Amino acid sequence: xxxxxxxxxxxxxxxxxxxxxxxxxxxxxxxxxxxxxxxxxxxxxxxxxxxxxxxxxxxxxxxxxxxxxxxxxxxxxxxxxxxxxxxxxxxxxx
Length: 94
Hints:
By secondary structure, the protein is mainly α. The chain has a domain at 21-83. 51% of the residues lie in helices and 0% in strands. The longest helix has 14 residues, at 70-83. The mean pLDDT is 84.
């Protein structure tokens, strides 16, 4: 079978200013990251939506060198804690 080159939406290290959200979106869509930054700045000025979109992207988009996002890491950590009882022994997974 042939492998497909699938683009994945990731926060990038190259071109990063804060968390890499805009540069990741720009790379995924194929446009300059500065256009994404301008669009989010305009959205922020007209109602503050840009800040929320950026925050959601930061939480849900994984780094380019990982497979899980910040939210997924927190969920996995919570699940690991719930599997461990107070004595420190692992509970069997169901």
